[in-house]
Amino acid sequence: DQQVKQNSPSLSVQEGRISILNCDYTNSMFDYFLWYKKYPAEGPTFLISISSIKDKNEDGRFTVFLNKSAKHLSLHIVPSQPGDSAVYFCAVEYGNKLVFGAGTILRVKS
Amino acid sequence: EAGVAQSPRYKIIEKRQSVAFWCNPISGHATLYWYQQILGQGPKLLIQFQNNGVVDDSQLPKDRFSAERLKGVDSTLKIQPAKLEDSAVYLCASSLLAGQETQYFGPGTRLLVL
After folding, report:
1. Which of A50, B57, B67, B69 is 20 to 30 A from residue B30's alpha carbon, by CA?
2. Rounded Cα gap, residues A63 and A6, in angstroms
């Protein structure tokens, strides 16, 4: 029973364009959401988070949007750079632990 | 600041053998986590420690997996006996406290069970 779903296994984007990664969740009680980025042979690194009291959080080229009614969040990367090529995991913090989605592989072409 | 250290980085064993992984968290971090990441899936929490006490081990297969954090710093995760389906990357993470605190991950140990 997946509580956090990333339905796109992969995404390919041209350098300079916008990358949009999507995530759906099932439990309306979830109130803290995170995105992690993972390069090959490395552990995931924290990227950006959002609390349910907000609908948007921005950090440089990265913006996370939260739509509570749809139980959906998305990560926007503008402009995309080749160094952004990685696996992106959506996660929710619930009960003092993280529950991760399966990840989306982003490839930014130069 | 040194990150989370894990060893070994890679391990190949045969089924029914035992294996142990080691983790050294970031200095001062009270909370330590072990995750299992199977290929094509996201990390799944196996066990969470707060100092040297277990906070959550609900998803740890206790018939074969065990973990300890005796002095509230380093931790070891053991599998005995290993099964084919245990092939995965085992990630250790730490955070200052539990809850909405950033978790910092180590590079992981890639285990292959033949």
Report:
1. A50
2. 17
Query: Residues of B with CB below 8 A from A95's CB?
Result: 56
How many whole angstroms separate alpha carbon B53 and alpha carbon A104?
A: 34
* pLDDT tops 70 at residue A35: yes
Mutant choice from A2, A23, A93, A96 vs B, greatest count of B C-beta within 10 A: A96
The two beta strands, A10-14 and A104-109, are: parallel
The owner of tokens 């490395």 is A42
Closest approach of chain B CAs to the CA of A22, in angstroms? 15
Q: What angle do CA B52, B56, B58 make, to 5 degrees?
A: 135
How do residues B56-112 score in pLDDT, each as one tens digit? 999 999 999 999 998 889 999 999 999 999 999 999 999 997 766 789 999 999 999
Residues of chain B with a CB closer than 8 angstroms to some CB in chain A: 4, 33, 40-45, 48, 55-56, 91, 93, 98-100, 102-108
Instruction: Read off the tokens for A41.
Output: 């042979």
DSSP-derived secondary structure for B49-95: EETTEEEE-TTS-TTTEEEE-TTSS-EEEEESS--GGG-EEEEEEEE
Token pair in block for residue B110 = 């890639």
d(CA B62, CA A61) in angstroms, rounded, equals 43
Place of tokens 């069970």: B113
